[in-house]
Structure formats: structure tokens, C-alpha cells
Amino acid sequence: MATDIETDMTAKTPEATGADVVTRFAPSPTGFLHIGGARTALFNWLFARHHGGKFLLRIEDTDRARSTDAAIDAIIDGMQWLDLDWDGETVFQFARADRHAAVAAELLAKGEAYRCYLTQDELAAMRAEAQEKRLPFRVRSPWRDRSDGDPSIPHVVRLRAPQEGAVTIADKVQGEVTVQNAELDDFVLLRSDGTPTYMLSVVVDDNDMGVTHVIRGDDHLNNAFRQLALIRAMGWREPTYAHVPLIHGADGAKLSKRHGALGVDAYRDEMGYLPEAVNNYLLRLGWGHGDDEIISREQATEWFDLAHVGRSPSRFDFKKLENLNGHYLREADDARLAALVAPRVEKLAGRALTDAERATLTRAMESLKPRAKTLDEVADGAMFLFQGDPLPVDEKAAEVLKAAPEGLLAAVTQRLRGLDQWTIEELDAAVRAEAEAAELGLGKLAGPLRAALTGRTVSPGIFDVLLLLGRDVSLARLDAVQHYPAGA
Ligand code: GLU
After folding, report:
1. Is 216 in the pocket of ligand 1 (CB under 6 A)?
2. Does the annotation mark 257 as catalytic?
3. Global pTM?
4. Beta partners for 157?
5. Rounded distance from Cα 438 to ligand 1 centre (Å)
6. How far does residue 336's CA lie from ligand 1's centre (Å)?
7. C-alpha 203 – ligand 1 centre gap (Å)
8. Does the Cβ of 28 fall within 6 Å of ligand 1?
9. Which atom of ligand 1 lies closest to the CA of 27?
10. Ligand 1 pocket member 243 (CB < 6 A)
11. Topology of the domain covering 264-331
């Protein structure tokens, strides 16, 4: 179908503005809130908030076989997590089926639609003929011009779409796009069982909800021409369209699971990203403001426009998302982070944390978060605080301990045990004094100390480690490695 469309990449009309802006996010609840849907929601949210307008949520649950309550919950949960609040009640499309059917009846009464009695066999024959002639298949129903049908016989209702001329959409992202009306057909509004089609429901709901701007994926661009024909048949106000290029994988191919086409819950739960990082990343995935990479919600709301939505598909880049997440981790409040990290620590430790341990985790955040890109990395970095007896020692740390000069750890342990107070000043003085006595650089001493106290070669600064562990645990761990490796 894409070949049916001529695009003029230069034409763009100015953006309509005003407080009467109404946008909507209209997901089909057939799966999780995937990352592309989340971006569509974000763009609609930002556009509405930028203009002081309204952002609405409509659940398109007319596909009864595929729509599930679990998917509805996942969508709402995902939007709440991303802090994309919507105005008014959530609209459920299926509940409005009577209204959709009433509009079809109105179109019939106005002569803008007709009852079509083509059978499945007749349609199949038309399709086969088109295939034989290598022509695109378009329904040309003889019932368009007949009025002798019997409404008690099963039939569908089709729009009497214009056949001459062309339709041009001044799309805010794609520019002017024109389709010849001859390319479109009289699409179905009501199926033979009387249920409305997607095409009808979307148009009626957008109209009734007062939607002024339809911002969605460009996989819906072809639908827009049909929807416009329907809007014109009803004499309704035409919305402004903005069809945003879809997200591709890092290799340029269509986004698949491997590329990150996952539910936003996976970004939260499995990958450990913060919502502000995901929002910032999604914003930059298809929209730009000069060279700015780190953009707060406030700035985004102030700056967002459709003119700077890119026209080519953006590529998903986990590295960028990670870097943004690292930034927002460093910015985040310590108590909030500790609450997010605690369940991950508990999972790794295989036990619940005590209140005192949770308090330690909060105190540790300041030194843990600069070293991490995800919540899982923060949790992993925190593990030394909650493991013990015996402390697991990784391979690299074991090497460091083996290579430590004989008696070094015993000597520093003795100095530390003699301290009156376990403060940063006293600890610093004791460790420095030992480094001098042993004629070693501070780094040479910090390595074995770190390995003994954390079982790792990477950790927060050594004085932070000593303070976070406290005197008793620190001394016990140092005592435990005096003769490292035991029995080797
Ligand atoms: N329910 C459609 C979808 O999830 C969106 C319809 C629209 O935005 O017009 O793809």
C-alpha cells in the first residue's frame, strides 16, 4: 500500500495551537504496553500538556477474542509508572458499539453508506480476478448503485466513498501526503453480524471525544485516508494528523523482542530502569531539541512540538538508555532508590532485609549510585553489606588477597581495632599511618582492604565501606582473612 502514497517532504503547515487541544492514546489491549506505544502515549501527553489541553485514554477493546483484562491492567500500570496521567474517565471502545452502529445508520439514511449483499464467494471471485490481472484488489460492489436489496438477508454496510479526485493530508510529521480516491474502496462500516469495524469505531470515538490531534504510529497513515472519507461523509471536524515513524532496532530492522520491543514493565522489573530515564529516552527517540540529551519533564513539556519529530525511523539504542539511566540514578533521592533496590537485594540475598539493613542501604546509596547504570547494578554493588559468614570472595579479590604483603592486613587491623571512634577522620588517619609505616601507597593498601571487606575489587571508597559496615563487621571480616587463603 505504501506505493499508493505520494509524499511531498517539503510541505508542512503551521501547527494549530490553543487550549482546545485534545489528544488521545488509543491502545488495543492485546498485549503489554510496548515501548512504541509508550512513546506514542508520551508524545500525545506532551503535546496536550504543552498546549494546556487534554490528554485522553481510550482502550480499543473491540477485538473480543484478543483483548484481555490483564492487558488493560498492564497498559494502565505502565502509564502510571511513566507518570502519564490522562484526563477524565478511561473510554472503553466496545461499550460504545451501539453509538458506532447508530452512526452507520445515520450514514445509510443520508445515502453516504449502503447495504452490500456481496457473498464471500463473490468477493473471492473478485479477489481472484484482480490477482490474475495483477491489479490491486479493491471492492467494487454492484450494491453501491442498487436499492433492491432485502435488509433481512445478511449484509454488511459500506461507506459510499468518493471515487474521483484525491485526498491530501497535511500531516505534521510526514508533510503533505496525497492518495487518489480511486485507490481506496468502499470499506466496511458494519459487519454482517452488525458489529462496527475498527475504522468506524475510531472515527466516531475521536469525534465524540473531541480529539483535535491524532498523533500515532505511521503504520496508521493509510487508515487516515479512509477515516477522513468517513469524517467528511458525516460532516465532522477534521483532526490534525501526525504520523510518527516507527521505532527500529539498532541494526535498522523492524523492532523485535531482541531489540527491545518489550513491555515497559520489562524495562522496570527486569532491566531496572527508572521511569524518568525511560521517558527521557523515548522522547529523544524520534524528537529532538538541538543537542540536548538530558531533558526533564518540565523542559519537555515546554519545548515539545510536532515540527521537530523526525521523519525517519529512530533506532533503539540500549547504550543511550543506560547512560540516561545512570544520570537519573545519580539524581534520584536516596530513600526512593533504596526502596526500589531493596527487593532486588532481597532476591539476590534470598532473604528479607531488616529495618536496620534498609537504613544502611539508604545510607549506602550516595556511594553506590555513581557506580551503577541500572537498579540491578546498584543492588549487586550493595550485596557486600548483606552477605557474610563467610563473605563470598570473587576470583579477582582472591588474587588481590593472595598477593598482599605478609602481615599487612594484620597490621592495619590492629590499628583499626585500637581506634577510639569509628569516624572518617580516625579511619583515614589509621589507614594512612599504616600505609606510611609499610612504605606503601594508599592504593596498595586499599586493594587488599577492599578485597577483605567486600570480597570484590570494585566497591565504594574504602572509608565509606568501613563506615557502612561498622566497626564489628569490619574487624570480623578483616580477622577472617588474616591467614588467607586458609589451608592453601
Ligand atoms: N488501537 C490502535 C493501535 O493500537 C490505534 C488506533 C489509533 O491510534 O488510531 O494500533
Report:
1. yes
2. yes
3. 0.90
4. 115, 190
5. 70
6. 35
7. 11
8. yes
9. 4
10. no
11. Glutamyl-tRNA Synthetase; domain 2 (1.10.1160)
What is residue 470's three-state secondary structure? helix
Q: Which of 110, 254, 257, 402 is catalytic?
A: 257
Q: Where are the domains of the chain?
A: 4-247, 264-331, 334-385, 395-480
Sorted by sequence, the CB contacts under 8 Å of residue 441 that are 6+ apart come out as 435
- Alpha-carbon distance of 389 to 399, in angstroms, equals 20
Q: CATH fold of 395-480, please?
A: Arc Repressor Mutant, subunit A (1.10.10)
> Is residue 202 in contact with ligand 1, taking CB distance under 6 Å?
yes
Report helix angle 442-454 to 462-480, nearest 10: 60
Instruction: Give, for 2, the enclosing helix (H) or strand (E).
Output: none
* CA distances in angstroms from 63 to 68, 198, 215, 218, listed in the order given: 10, 9, 22, 21
How many A from CA of 320 to the centre of ligand 1?
A: 28
Å from CA of 40 to ligand 1 middle: 10
Helix-helix angle 97-110:221-234, to 10 degrees: 60
Q: Does the C-beta of 220 come closer than 6 Å to ligand 1?
A: yes
Full pLDDT tens readout for the chain, 488 residues: 333 444 443 334 445 455 599 999 999 999 889 999 999 999 999 999 999 999 999 999 999 999 999 999 999 999 999 999 999 999 999 999 999 999 999 999 999 999 999 999 999 999 999 999 998 888 989 999 998 999 999 999 999 999 999 999 999 999 999 999 999 999 999 999 999 999 999 999 999 999 999 999 999 999 999 999 999 999 999 999 999 999 998 888 877 777 767 889 999 999 999 999 999 999 999 999 999 999 999 999 999 999 999 999 888 899 999 999 999 999 999 999 999 999 999 999 999 999 999 999 999 999 999 999 999 999 999 999 999 878 999 999 999 999 999 899 999 999 999 999 999 999 999 999 999 999 998 889 999 999 999 999 999 999 999 999 999 999 999 999 876 554 34
DSSP bridge partners of 381: none
Closest to 20 measured CA to CA, from 290, 177, 209, 252: 209
- From atom 6 of ligand 1, which residue's Cα is the shortest distance away? 26
Asked whether 223 lines ligand 1 (CB < 6 A), one says no
Whether 206 is in the pocket of ligand 1, judged by its Cβ within 6 Å, is: no
Distance between CA atoms of residues 262 and 343, nearest Å: 22
Distance 242 CA to ligand 1 centre (A): 13
Nearest residue (CA) to ligand 1, atom 7:
26
* Ligand 1, atom nearest to 40 Cα: 8
CATH code assigned to 4-247: 3.40.50.620
- Per the CB < 8 A criterion, the answer to whether 457 and 401 are in contact is no
